[in-house]
Amino acid sequence: MRRGWWGPPLDDDQRAVLELIDDLAGSHLSRVGDERPDDVDTARQALADHGLWTMGADETGGGGGADLATTLVALARLAGTCPALAWASVQAHAAALVLSGAGRASSGLLGDIHQGAPVAVCAVDPAEGDAVELTGGRITGTLDRLDPSGREPRLVLLLDRDTAVAVPPDGVTFGPTVRRTGLDGALTVSCRMDASVSDDAVVRGPRVTQARTLLHVGAAALAAGIAEAAAQAALAYSSTREQFGAALTELPTVRASLSAQAAAARAVLTTSIATCLDRPDVAAAALTPAFDLAVDVAAASVQSHGGYGYMVEYGVEGLLRDAVSLRAAARATEAARTAAHVLVGGDA
For the chain, give me the number of helices (H) and strands (E)? Predict the structure, then answer.
């Protein structure tokens, strides 16, 4: 189903991307839940087959070569349909950025990711409960949450601002799928690591910071996409629902609410698409406000639907749960803490 676009003006390539995602939404990207992981694999593979999975990664390494703005447009649109897959795609982009600077041992992994293999990228943060150590060529530790939209994903860790590791799969043990409030199809798991790491699997340098920033920038675009989808759903429902012989949009209070939702969605969508990777502090600072706004708009959309807003068939309650769960998955609180630390003169 075609939806309008409330963000900044689009060029021809960006419009074509939106049309492609809308077409796929009708055939491959329906919400299937974690109980049908084969269908999640099929949806993820459909994105790869159509060049969307890593469309913004370096073309010389096997990615699509799209510019960042076009990539964020695609991710925002995908988030309004299937946020779990959109977040998994953000992680695939971050992994591709890191692995393009790795040794030859990681070239096969990079190719697999471009072909649609699931990958989880985690920016390690002890304050979030992560306990990971890389010492003497061995990586050990545990992670409480990964959201790869795929079973037994390859794992890329951003240990600090300068160091990343592609963890060998034979040294990773995944726990059972974890229940969440939202993000159908994320196949959330915990994991335990104890693996020998070769020098080729360790990446150091600015690509690591860029990958971390890409996670933040991508997550903000997803929040914007959820807000847009929720605001458009509220407008569509209110335009067709009648009360006292007239459409709900005839009521001044309803019009005011819809206008506020639309304005907020347009603002966050425009801001998120215009971000870049050269200001990691700005990207981190923008993440929490983007998700706060997405949650507010989605909650207002539920209210605009009245009692129907709480019914799964109408979809908006799912968007609200997705916004809350994705905010946790993207570690918006940690990003805000980092941005605040930089603001007062600390290191990034």
Answer: 10, 10
